[in-house]
Each structure stands twice: as C-alpha cells, then as structure tokens.
Amino acid sequence: MTRFQNRLPDALRDITIQIGIAPQAMGSVLISFGKTQVICTASAEAGVPRWMKEQNVSGGWITAEYSMLPYSTSPRKQRDSTRGKVDGRSTEIQRLIGRSLRAAINLEALGSRTMWVDCDVLQADGGTRTASITGASLAMALACQHLVATKQVATNPMKQLVAAVSVGIHQSKVLLDLDYSEDKDAEVDLNLVMNESLEFIEIQASGEESVFNNSQLTTMLDYGRTGITQLLEKQRMILQK
C-alpha cells in the first residue's frame, strides 16, 4: 500500500499552524493536519458553572465546544442549530477536548473564570478531534499568556502543552495520522493524547470489526509518541516566537 504523497507509515501529514486568526479571542489558531483544517480559539470570562458554586469547588473551569461547519464535508453537514441539538459524535469529541485541556492547566491559578475553547472544523479529512486538541492547547496557552500580560492572573495557569494524534491499522499495517481514505477502512482506530512529559492523558482504541494484539498496540503507541513529540515541538517553536 502506498500512502498519499508516499508518506511513511510513521510520518505525520504536513502540519501548518497560523496564530491570531480570530483577533477577538484571547488566543486563536488555524491548524492543518494535511487537508484537515480547524480554527481553535480560547477566551476567559469571569464566573464558573453553577455546579461549582453549589459544591463550593474553588478555581476555574474549561468548557470546550466542537462543531463541523456545513461545508467541511461532502455531502454538506446540517448545522446543529438547524437540527435543534448537538449530535452524539460532537458531544463526545468536545468532552474529550475538555478533559484533555483540563489536564494541562492549573484550575486554581485560573481563578474564578471559565475558559471557553471553541473548535470549528473548516475542512475534514480525518483526525479532526486530534487536530482540535493540538490546536486548542496552543490557543489556550496564548490566552493564558494574555491573562498574565494584562495582570489578570499572578502566575501562568498553563502547566504543560498537550497534543493528540491518530494511529490505526489499515490493511494490516500500523499507520500514524490517518487521513479519511485510510481511516474509513481502518481495522483498528486509536486516538492518543499526551502532555509535554509524554504522559498519557487519554487513549481511545477500538477494533472496527477486528482485533489487535499486544505487539500492534505497542507499535501504535510508539508511532503516536513519535508524532506527538513532533507536534509539541511545533507548539513550543510558535510560543517562543
């Protein structure tokens, strides 16, 4: 099997990141994993969810929202607002994004604020959730820098960057960062989220009418760790600039 543009099994797609794409947000990023493009923004507002007040939970909170714009796929995807509810897939993905980001930030240092993270998919070609997490981590880091620069917080709440990547088994071969043509026929699908210490935040793995063994799992995790290391380095380079 030959991958698009002769990409090696353990190679990422071309990754591009542009910051400041949404000037009204505290932090914003347009991230591309190959043809997959996602705008990720982060902004902090005073106040926390009611349940935190009722349970006397101190610190702040992070809420993530994820959506695929109608023109991001073919055929056109109906807007959630038109259907009157968020579909199950989007709900699951935005919960994953929220969990991943809460592992990266000191909620006490954030103070009594809610960090709103929005991920809007402009074009979908596989890996939208992993691109969203990687871009949202950078958007949130930029927002935290803004909070420090404007003296709204005493210390930077961001503990570590996080990144995510997909891995899978396609035609019995382990592949990193699957595009849609590979993902739709993959026998095994795995999404991996890690922090800068290369500690696991989340592993989502399932056989699509198939199974996988320990050796394949080890290879998938090794490929994923390699990809995430490269993504974290790209994030750090942008923040240093």
3D structure, described in words:
The protein has 241 residues and is α+β, with helices and mostly antiparallel strands. The chain has a single domain, classed as GHMP Kinase, N-terminal domain (Ribosomal Protein S5, domain 2), CATH 3.30.230. The chain is 34% helix and 29% strand. It is built from 7 helices and 9 strands. A 5-stranded mixed β-sheet has the order 1-2-3-5-4. A hairpin with a 4-residue loop joins strand 8 and strand 9. The longest helix has 27 residues, at 214-240. It is globular and about 55 Å long.
Summarize the structure.
This protein is an alpha+beta fold.
Arrangement of strands in the largest sheet:
1-2-3-5-4
Total discrete domains: 1
Strand content: 25-35%
Low-confidence stretches: none
Structural class by SSE content: alpha+beta
**Major sheet description:** 5 strands, mixed
Topology of this structure?
Layout: E1 15-19, E2 27-33, E3 36-46, H1 50-54, E4 61-68, H2 80-83, H3 88-102, H4 107-110, E5 113-123, H5 128-149, E6 162-170, E7 173-176, H6 180-183, E8 188-195, E9 200-207, H7 214-240
Parallel strand pairs: 4-5
Antiparallel strand pairs: 1-2, 2-3, 3-5, 6-7, 6-8, 8-9
